[in-house]
Design goal:
With 407 residues, the chain is mainly α. It has 20 helices and no strands. The longest helix has 27 residues. It is globular, with a radius of gyration of 26 Å.
């Protein structure tokens, strides 16, 4: 199957080369045709577009152009002799230009990390979000979640995209760990933050955007939504690190962050419009945006203590820092009430059958509990505010250590 897909990719590039007048004028092996030379060039072009660290297409083009002016056939012979015998065989057959398993196994770690890949942990973490997305959003695309064909047809793109986002989110959260009192641990954590800050988030997400672009799925709006994710992670670091230092934070940053937090759902939704060949339905997007906002608040209330422990973004944490422990619940309740009014107004604009289906999905999700798309409309439980987060972390950690000792 992989060989057939590779053959299809090469054939598409050959067709492009032919239409652009890029086919070789040299004969292949003394024959009259240029089949082998054209295939070599097609594989070379495919190799050139593979993501590699932060190198842009223009940079790779300039590098190759500069090097080819200096390389001679003798240089290639020298490189071949310097290589491992197995690599010699791969070079002579053109295998190194093909993105196959052998190439990936032989590539060094930096090359592998630059490719659009995801780890098992990210795939596992993305599972519940993907299930929720399919059950809550497929109805807006006229798809039946109970039809396996509808799910598996779009699952590869949706699963890879969400897993990649989760992987980046985990990297961002690693930089938010509360700084230990131990000086060596503190220095290590600060170094980790510096390394992450210096690494452009745009570069980190480029492998995903490159893949979506190659699949013909990238749009300006989708790119903007992915950039919203970058903005969210930057804001999360800014806000959570400010809390760790007891610095003031702004309500504008907090509200912007909570609205950006659901960017992955919007990315998946926009991908569905591309995959199904439909125009984006603005009414649906507006309605779901309000629903996503309420869902994020619901999730934050559910995960409040865990987020305090991990020093990750949580709207109740932020409200407590801005308004104080006693006033924060009242201000958050006011925010929720205003959002629910907008939610109810937009739900009346939906097709009645669609609105009814989504409402039933919300009820299902509420009964199932945990992180859900269907927020508990009208029924909210704001947990007690933790006024001293550092003391809470120490107490929780000591209890965990004590229970571990008993076991």
């Amino acid at each position: 199957m992989e060989a057939l897909l590779e053959l299809e990719r090469v054939q598409r590039v050959l067709s492009l080369m032919s239409s652009r007048g890029l086919c070789s004028t040299l004969s292949s092996g003394g024959g009259s045709g240029g089949g082998d030379t054209d295939r070599f060039l097609a594989q070379f072009l495919l190799f050139m577009v593979q993501p590699f660290d932060s190198l842009s297409m223009e940079k790779k083009f300039l590098l190759i152009s500069e090097m080819l002016g200096k390389v001679t056939p003798d240089t290639l012979e020298e490189v071949q002799h310097l290589s491992h015998p197995q690599v010699d065989q791969d070079i002579s057959s053109g295998a190194l230009l093909q993105p196959n398993k052998k190439f990936k196994m032989q590539a060094d770690k930096s090359t592998i990390q630059a490719a659009p890949m995801v780890g098992f942990d990210a795939v596992t973490r993305a599972k519940s979000t993907l299930e929720d997305f399919c059950r809550s959003y497929f109805m807006f695309h006229g798809l039946d979640i109970n039809n396996p064909q509808s799910v598996f047809k779009y699952l590869p793109v949706l699963s890879f995209t969400e897993s990649f986002i989760y992987q980046l989110d985990a990297s961002n959260e690693d930089s938010l760990d509360p700084v230990s009192d131990d000086s060596s641990s503190s220095k290590a954590l600060e170094r980790k933050k510096e390394v992450f800050d210096e690494t452009s988030l745009s570069q980190m997400i480029e492998p995903l955007t490159g893949l979506l672009r190659c699949q013909g799925l990238m749009t300006d709006r989708l790119r903007t939504e992915l950039e919203s994710g970058i903005q969210y992670w930057s804001l999360e670091r800014k806000l959570c690190q400010a809390l760790s230092r007891n610095e003031k934070i702004s309500i504008d940053d907090v509200m912007k962050a909570i609205h950006l937090k659901s960017f992955d759902y919007r990315v998946l939704n926009l991908l569905m419009y591309q995959l199904t060949g439909q125009q984006v339905n603005e009414l649906h997007m507006d309605f779901l945006s309000i629903s996503e906002f309420l869902v994020e608040i619901s999730d934050d209330l559910y995960d409040y203590e865990e987020d305090v422990m991990n020093n990750t973004f949580n709207i109740l944490r932020m409200y407590a820092a801005i308004y104080g422990p006693s006033e924060a619940p009242n201000m958050l309740a006011k925010c929720i009430g205003e959002a629910e009014e907008r939610y109810e107004s937009f739900s009346k604009k939906l097709d009645p059958s669609l609105s009814g289906c989504y409402w039933r999905r919300c009820e299902e999700a509420t009964k199932e509990g945990g992180k859900i798309s269907g927020h508990a409309y009208g029924t909210w439980n704001i947990p007690p505010v933790i006024s001293d987060e550092e003391s809470f972390r120490r107490e929780r950690s000591s209890k965990h250590d004590a229970s571990a000792t008993i076991i």
